[in-house]
């Protein structure tokens, strides 16, 4: 029997979001219905609302979530009712050219639930990133459910489903940060701070946080930054070079998504160093660099999709490290809020005093 639950929808471009009754079908083959316990408010949800992702309104927002599997459809073996799971938005297919080459983290054919959730009048909803978890229950592909230790608090666990995983993964998966490395992180929001925490976890010796907001830099220190640079008042490239013996950092992580910060990252790394772009640019942005510098400085210029994570490998591992006290994921949760507070949380995002607002059910 399809169920009716409450969920947050974005009805149209730039219209305020609102709580509506949504209809969640029973899971079909390969699908699962999850009772959502917590879901973080991410910039991508705001981008959906603003029409910045596509025009498939109405959207069912929310995608950084954890909860308990309620029911599964035919043929589902990887999770069972009662499992505590983090939802991921890249359920790998196992069959595309990336998967077949042993690089499932790049899967080019990730999948979502086939059936649609709807409004009561039958209008089909587009779930944000194929999840739609600002809802009491949501329908996903079973592969989007990653089982983790249920001892972790849901509001903490859910964050691994998107921004925090993107940042940690940018450092440890894409950037390959290792023991003794020098790392600079440009942009210290939720993603940048997670890159800092990931760099500390990986054993980086020097972690330089760069931001234009002193409040963000103070928080970055709590997350593990050993040095901070306010790039409003100080040239960040010079400062990073000075802090690294005049050379530049081994790995520079760009967590803003703008050409000027990318250029800073490019010049702030050591010769043969690595730049990781995890900030997401907008379509009109362009980059201009002397090609000779691209050649002459060598190294690697990489982008990090979802932290190049493999949910089945990375989520349980990071939850375990958190439970052991080695990774403070709780530090990312600024406030817990109700389902009706998402619009307010979008406003707080702009004020810059929140890492993550998390809806709890
Ligand atoms: N130089 C340095 N820092 C900057 C600059 C700049 N020119 N402009 C903005 N910042 C800082 C902000 O002060 C803020 O601390 O970048 C940070 C951005 O953080 P958030 O807005 O909280 O965004 P976050 O959730 O961390 O995501 C960062 O990653 O996944 C992408 O779409 C996401 O592009 C976004 C980026
Ligand atoms: Zn694949
Ligand atoms: Zn997100």
UniProtKB/TrEMBL annotation:
InterPro entries: ADH-like_C, ADH-like_N, ADH_Zn_CS, ER, GroES-like_sf, MycoS_dep_FDH, NAD(P)-bd_dom_sf. Its cofactor is Zn(2+). Signal peptide: none annotated. Keywords: Metal-binding, Oxidoreductase, Zinc. Its EC number is 1.1.1.306. Residues 12-359 form the Enoyl reductase (ER) domain. PROSITE patterns: ADH_ZINC. GO terms for molecular function: mycothiol-dependent formaldehyde dehydrogenase activity; zinc ion binding. Transmembrane segments: none annotated. Belongs to the zinc-containing alcohol dehydrogenase family. This is S-(Hydroxymethyl)mycothiol dehydrogenase. It comes from Streptomyces luteoverticillatus.
